[in-house]
Write a structure and sequence with these properties.
It is a single chain. By secondary structure, the protein is α+β, with helices and mostly antiparallel strands. It folds into five domains: 45 residues, no CATH class; 55 residues, no CATH class; 109 residues, no CATH class; 95 residues; 109 residues, no CATH class. The chain has 18 helices and ten strands. The strands form two sheets. Strands 4-3-2-1-5 form a five-stranded antiparallel β-sheet. A five-stranded antiparallel β-sheet has the order 9-8-7-6-10. Strand 8 and strand 9 form a beta hairpin. The mean pLDDT is 79.
């Protein structure tokens, strides 16, 4: 196997915007799996891309903001992808950051900064940070230097210094009880392993607890100690009803995460893992559908009593992760429940793992060949909405277009996204399978 020759062929296909064919060529030549072949092609594609200049960045932002104002989110993501060549996750994060306005999406910042540093583009990384409008040149240079220093040292994480904005973001995530996201942010930026990243986040959390303990002691010395404190384990008194759904929640237990939230004598409770596991599915599904939080609740002080903890915060994180996967698509109704069963064991942050799960599920349950109709408007290409086609098999998976099928229209064969097709026979078992996939793809 001549890797040098393969690399040249892949680069040529990338320049012709034939990424699917490039991945297929790598798989056939090397015998690698889909994930490894895709990573190889993505790495070559990224290496061929220059960093965006401040002028290009400004033009890109203007175009994305215009699409956002027209409520065309999907087109905005596609616009970023076409202009930058970034992967789908980074493109979505970029658009999300602009949707939020001035809010800084540090997961996106970390991903893009890490990508530039991986290519040895230190000066471009500094320039890109400045272009975001959140740092001057000195601050950006210091940020890059600290990240590179963290990557190259073997010291204990607790003794290391990361950029101040990153530390601030990690603390904000901890305050919001989003420790998993805090660890993920540190891993993206530093390339540390899970254990080292968690140790760093734990060190910040420990410092916060020590400061809180000192403040509590000073408060107690002045005779101002409240009945409840953040971190206390509490249990709901018998007979108390859920303010949203009217079911009794007496005996539910959790930890206080906020005091005086919204109004006086009210506390915010994050439910513990035992309560979450016994929470009715209907409550979680209705909460997801209505955009309500199901992992926490605000209650009056007199509706609660102190109790002893019966799990750890790690247990809570694991159960929330499990239930979030199970109910992630509940808001889509019956179709969402079916989608949830397909994706329940897949990491929701791993786009390719999700697409791989769909590929496996569809390959096992679809009956080929079948007739379908192009259901979505096509900006270009030989196929247009309303065209009848015969679908023969699944061809591949792409992180932008999803599951790609091989089909025939007239005397010609094409590779086409399954999400843009609709099975013509509504009584066929294929109909619901393809429709569920299309619903998921449109709302992912």
């Amino acid at each position: 196997m001549n890797l040098e020759r393969l690399e040249g062929q892949v680069r040529a296909l990338i320049e012709q915007n034939q990424k699917v064919e490039a991945i297929k060529l790598v798989r056939e030549t090397t015998g690698w799996g889909l994930r490894k072949s895709k990573d190889y092609v993505d790495a070559l594609a990224r290496a061929a891309l220059p960093a965006l200049s401040p002028a290009d960045e400004k033009t890109l932002k203007q175009g994305v903001r215009a699409l956002i104002e027209q409520d065309r989110y999907a087109q905005a993501v596609k616009h970023v992808r076409e202009r930058t060549g970034w992967d789908l996750g980074n493109c979505k994060a970029y658009v999300d950051a602009l949707v939020k306005g001035d809010a800084v999406d540090w997961h996106f910042i970390a991903s893009r900064l890490s990508e530039l540093l991986d290519q040895g583009m230190k000066d471009q990384a500094v320039g890109w940070l400045v272009a975001q409008g959140k740092m001057d040149a000195r601050e950006a240079q210091n940020c890059v230097d600290l990240v590179l220093a963290a990557r190259s040292t073997h010291s204990s994480p607790g003794s290391l210094q990361l950029p101040a904005p990153v530390v601030s973001q990690v603390r904000d995530l901890l305050a919001a009880d989003r420790k998993v996201e805090a660890v993920k942010l540190v891993r993206i930026l530093t390339h540390w392993g899970l254990s080292k990243s968690k140790e760093y986040v734990d060190s910040l959390e420990a410092r916060k607890k020590r400061r809180r303990k000192r403040r509590r002691k000073r408060s107690e010395a002045r005779g101002e100690s409240p009945v409840f404190r953040v971190g206390d384990s509490v249990k709901v008194e018998p007979g108390i009803l859920d303010p949203d759904f009217g079911i009794e929640i007496g005996g539910w237990q959790g930890r206080i995460t906020g005091i005086g939230v919204g109004q006086k004598n009210t506390v915010m409770i994050a439910w513990d893992s035992v309560t979450l596991r016994h929470m009715p599915d209907s409550v979680i599904e209705q909460s997801v559908e209505q955009g309500l939080a199901w992992t926490e609740m605000g209650l009056k002080v007199h509706e609660l009593e102190l109790t002893s903890p019966r799990d750890t915060e790690k247990d809570v994180v694991e159960v929330i992760d499990e239930l979030s996967r199970k109910h992630a698509w509940s808001w889509l109704g019956e179709a969402g429940k079916r989608v949830g069963k397909i994706l329940t064991s897949v990491d929701p942050d791993d786009e390719m793992a999700i697409l791989d799960a769909w590929e496996d599920h569809l390959a096992k349950h679809l009956s080929f060949p079948f007739e379908a109709e192009v259901s979505e408007y096509q900006e270009r290409g030989p196929l247009q909405a309303g065209d009848r086609v015969n679908v023969h098999r699944i061809f591949d998976v792409d992180d932008l277009y999803g599951v790609i099928v091989r089909l025939r229209h007239g005397h010609r064969q094409y590779h086409f996204p399954l999400c843009d097709l609709k099975v013509t026979d509504q009584h066929s078992s294929n109909y619901q399978l393809v429709d569920d996939y299309a619903v998921w793809f449109a709302n992912r």
